[in-house]
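User: structure tokens for this one?
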Amino acid sequence: MKKDKVFSNEITRHDLKRLRKKYKKTQSEMGVVLGVTKQTISNLETGRIEMTKMSKEFIRVFKILNFFECDKLIQIILDREI
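Assistant:
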């Protein structure tokens, strides 16, 4: 992954799905982390609805952590029940 892509302002639905799959999380589990329903995650990933600024910032943080190979920290965040 290129460094400039990681820090890019462009966050896409593909980023959400790719990160979710990498960490073996279901749409329901990702919904808990983002504070939305499974259906909302599905709609975000398929492009039926657009991401909010907060969702984009959340994904950007995960992309940065992923770039710096902070897998354990990411897993702790994703496994935490909110």
